[in-house]
Design goal:
- This protein has 257 residues and is of the alpha/beta class.
- It has one domain: TIM Barrel.
- It is built from 9 helices and 10 strands.
- Strands 1, 4, 5, 6, 7 and 10 form a 6-stranded parallel β-sheet that branches. Strands 2-3 form a two-stranded parallel ribbon.
- The radius of gyration is 18 Å and the shape is globular.
Length: 257
């Protein structure tokens, strides 16, 4: 059965403190990940292409992978884009529409260092280089905590502002903090987006809700071995024991039918 994996990165840089080390992947490790992805037989494809195949029931290879980045950090252009270009891997960056050119204020309150976000000009530059820019809401607020009026701001107005800034139609969305339920999914669809990414792990199949797409978190601590296991199992946590159990089940199936 066709299944598709979506990877979720945040910043690609040297962590500035311990707090952000979980979600900040160093450039060297990121390059190692992408080199493996390019050489492993995985089929890296634009997220929009994957969405259309899922929507239309088209055939997807079992090893289809889309690479995404949340928040739109400025370090993406410096550290991630050259690697993606080198290995011909398409990517989607989800930008916070109301904070273009600002900083990650929602993270600083939790002890994370200040990080610059790309402005409209920088987003147009990465778009010109082949990167798809999607919307990460207006102010990066957990959408399940918002009133209906505020929810419209985070979807309808966020899409309008980003589309005008990029001079192109923005059709992909990612929920801040992964917070979503039926109400939020309906709001995103009503705003004109064609699909939205959450943060629940797992593979995406034709029956997956396009407004609750699953993604795999890639952590700063992920070695090449753990990254390979994530691709294999479609899980945020994939240990050597998981790998052993997986191959044991395959061998048992082969001998016992």
């Amino acid at each position: 059965m066709s299944r598709a994996l979506i990877l979720m990165y945040h910043s690609v840089d040297t962590p500035l403190n311990e707090a952000e080390s979980r979600y900040c992947v160093t450039p060297a490790v990121f390059r190692e990940h992408m080199a493996h992805l390019a050489a492993s037989g995985s089929v890296a494809m634009p997220l929009a292409t994957m969405v259309q195949a899922l929507k239309q029931g088209g055939q997807l290879p079992d090893n289809a992978v889309a690479v995404t980045f949340d928040d739109g950090f400025e370090c993406f252009q410096r550290n991630a884009l050259p690697v993606l270009t080198e290995f011909h891997i398409p990517a989607t960056v989800f930008a916070v529409s109301g904070m273009l050119g600002g900083t990650n204020t929602w993270m600083q309150a939790k002890g994370w260092p200040e990080r610059k976000l790309m402005n409209a000009h920088e987003l147009r530059e990465i778009q010109a280089a082949g990167v798809t820019v999607g919307c990460h809401a207006l102010n990066h607020k957990p959408m399940t905590q918002l009133s209906d009026e505020a929810l419209a701001d985070e979807t309808v107005n966020a899409r309008r502002i980003l589309s005008e800034a990029l001079e192109t139609d923005v059709t992909l969305f990612a929920y801040p903090h992964g917070a979503q339920s039926g109400r939020e999914r309906q709001a995103v669809e009503k705003a004109g987006f064609i699909a939205a990414c959450g943060t629940e792990p797992g593979f995406n199949r034709h029956q997956t809700d396009l407004f609750a797409l699953r993604r795999i978190d890639v952590y700063g601590s992920d070695t090449l071995a753990s990254f390979r296991r994530k691709l294999q199992f479609g899980a945020n946590r994939a240990t050597l024991a998981d790998l052993a159990n997986y191959y044991f089940r395959r061998i048992a199936t082969h001998f016992h039918g």
